[in-house]
Fold:
Amino acid sequence: MVQQNVLVTNVKGLHLRAANELVKTASAFESDIRVGAGDMEVDGKSMMGLLGLAASMGTEVRIKASGPDEREAVRAIVALFEAKFDEEE
Amino acid sequence: MKTVLLSSLYRDLKARLKLVLLNEEVDLDASISSPDIGRPGLLLSGFREGFPSGRLQVLGHVEFLYLEHLDGAARLAAFESLLGEQVPGVILTDDRRLPDELVESATSRRVPMMSTPLSATETVQCLYSYLLGELAPETSMNGTMVDVYGVGILITGRSGIGKSECALDLVDRGHRLVADDLIRVISMPPGILIARSAEPLQNLVEVRGVGVIDIGSIFGIRALRRQKRIEVNVHLTDWDRNLHQDRTGLEERQTEIMGVGVPCVSVPLVAGKNVSVLVEVVALNHILKSYGYNAAQVLDQKLVEQLRQSGRRGFEYKDME
Structure:
């Protein structure tokens, strides 16, 4: 299992479009992906789960992956957060 | 561990218990971590051993009789022995009042005092059930929760297997959605699990290809339920010919959620299988079982009896009409 924590840095937080991007990225990997914030942890390939996290700007999010492509999966998802889901210049 | 602030308890129960704060200058910032309510009769009479600290104290009829029969100084001393036990608050029942010097003593020790017109039993019951709910352990899990014929069905299975589509079909057939995808589960002892939707997702279902849809707007209020006890878990799996499946229904499997066993029915999916009808039958069968009828057991008993008789007489050929 690979885990990395990342901060939500885009102003809108993990809203509908961002969650959609995350699901798209996560679904491309075979590994099981979990995303956690606070006391909750949800399936990274489930849109509703991610929305349920209600992760706003400044929240620390835990990205966990386990499977054959776990390293690449975590790297790709962390990159999404770091790029602020391409929402701001 | 979860805690409840006395100020939120006061805010939530003020109307129901008709609470009056007797010393308003004291802050309600104590936090309560146990649902148990204290009755300080023995402590007031001088027996301190084993007195549990941290509990709200409710003074009822006998405690008042006892305090009344003491003279001034002894009464204050008895009451102060209670205040010295780190109690988060004291509640007087039946609209009774204590002498001013006792209330003043509580104020100087920063112990809030409240009064209610309800009886001690009613007060304890109300406080206990409120605290039990507020302090109940909570977790979140992946799945879909539906009320089918009044039976709380938790549908689980890997992502993409069709939990949400199944819920949609069930709602279309007149059943009620509790939560889709992300479920908050609250454990209420003994052995009761309550499922709710996570706040921002209430009434919503995500269907692949369609997107997020609002069940309340499409189907109306009859399709929704705010919370429901988890009674049966229907676990959807991919069809696997090597998997040995119990075909009789005699075997009762259980899933464990927060340390509570929930009856589990595993349903392998194949093309053409109508999952919604299956879930309905699981719910109805659960109701039948709760009324004491287990079809698999009845069939088994009938078979055993028949086989025993035919064994005694030799197998008789009977003409079938």
Notes: The radius of gyration of chain B is 28 Å.
